[in-house]
Amino acid sequence: MNTSAASFRDPYTARPWLNSYPTGVPADIAETEYSTLVDIFNKSIVDFAELPAFESLGATQSYANFGRAAKNIAGWLQQQGLNKGDRVGIMSPNILAYPSILFAVLISGGIVVNINPLYTPDELVHQANDAKIKYLFVFENFAHTAQAAWERMNASRAIIIRAGDLMGARGLAVNFISRFIKRAAPRYHLPDALSLAQVVHQGTITPYSPIKIDRDDIAFLQYTGGTTGVAKGAVLLHRNIAANVAQSWAWLRSRLEHKGPHKMITALPLYHIFGLTACCLLLVHIGGCCLLIANPRDLKSFSTTLRKAKFTLFSGVNTLYAALTDYPEIKKVDFTNLIFSVAGGMATQKIVAHKWKALTGCPIVEGYGLSETSPILTTNRPDIEEFSGAIGYPAPSTYLSLRTPTGDVAPVGEPGELVVKGPQVMPGYWQRADETDKVMTKDGYFRTGDIAVMSPEGLFRIVDRLKDMILVSGFNVYPNEVEDVLSQHPKVREVAVIGVPYKHSGEAPIAFIVARDASLTAIELQTFAHEHLTGYKIPRHYEFKQSLPKSNVGKILRRELKEEFLSYKVSIPELNQETALSIDVNL
Questions:
Q1: Could you tell me whether strands 233-237 and 263-266 are parallel, antiparallel, or unpaired per DSSP bridges?
Q2: Which homologous superfamily does the CATH classification assign to the domain defined by 470-586?
Q3: I need a surface site. Which of 113, 247, 464, 567 has the fewest CB within 10 A?
Q4: What SS3 string covers 368-403?
Q5: What is this structure's pTM?
Q6: pLDDT (tens digit per residue) in 227-256
């Protein structure tokens, strides 16, 4: 691609979206408005010392105590000889100790490697060794996984976290009760492992000594979810994430600044980039409180927590919002203080958004981003009255463009691959220059792999992932569109659409359905699809399942469904229009 020609013809460089910005939101974030995550930490634990920073299992931690705990853990890390740039793994759900451990690593000059606690031993080995972690902080419930992986890992020591850690007297009760709950849990033995309580105590003996952290130092190796292949570590610098926090606050400030103090329901895991930045780091920056939910799948416990809390902010993904709106007890929750609900991580379905608005009176404000972009690239205006179905407008200092398969600039209104430049974009993948080259354009944009369209006003809408697009007789079919239609059928709980080889048209869409009502049949779905979709977009086959495979944040894994289907189907069953695909395959 001719770079200068592409830039000259690129209508996106004029940033037409700036005219649609909320009042007071700047076009750009000055570098003076963000520095490092350590600077954010040091300022917040002083400015908001007496305010609640985190809440978990009925215990509240002030900013002062949060800062003290982080410095004690950092003191221990320094005692052990942690060098600037050493990697430290954290493998834990959302519990009170997590943020203090995270910031302890950052302020001691280490690099945080967030690890999904649901990983198998093989997955843990891959990530730990790829990142070359020195220490592993692991929640006790998942220590057996670490034990199974330990001999193949090169980490020096494991530190065991317990649910009641850093809770004071209440934590003793929490840990005492949890022992009885865990009697049936797998036992573990990790050589030379320490408890977090021991680490905190030892960290008080030789106090933490501040070190110089620069904007260009690495803060996180944030591994991609692996939904399109082997997980890779996105290198996120302090300035990348600090810039994204500043961008987010600039976008939300006029909506939230005078309505605090804020408490955000943090059901998204902090080891995921969305929960990390949009919940934890943003709330620390503004002096808000994160109410940490360790297991949002336990809807009974989750709704009980919500009934007891006065919260102003809510974050989630489509599957979480869908599950909550379907749960009868959720009607007992008081949503009168809720002023902002944000969704990301996957496409939010219209039917789910409408149910959430009906339940809470608050629309879902959808955003978009990736691990490689810290993550936030776009967000809808925070003052919208109704769910838009779009991913919104680019954040300040963010440049988006759409490109065709040949690398040319796509005309406004036409679909193209979304590419991006901005201070929140990673410099590359950890020790994978070849993979970095694959995702960068010749003119320096990061390729997201998502297909989008932009309106003349600069509003972006995701059509689908590039690799998920289905080519039917030369026509593009986007699974998101088909899923959104089928999800509106009253008997459908969840749906996923993939493309598979089909002799008559090259590829064809098929749908996996989790039914809300057992009476649902393929003929009903086919009739419904015919009413809302053009012929080539209609699924050629329906599979009924009890559940769909999901990532750690609830994103449906189409790749796994495709691999599963192709492993036991030679081809799509030859079902004609008259039978209306009435054969149900129960897996």
A1: unpaired
A2: ANL, C-terminal domain (3.30.300.30)
A3: 567
A4: EECHHHCCEEEECCCCCCCCCCCCEEECCCCEEEEE
A5: 0.86
A6: 445 679 999 999 999 999 999 999 999 999
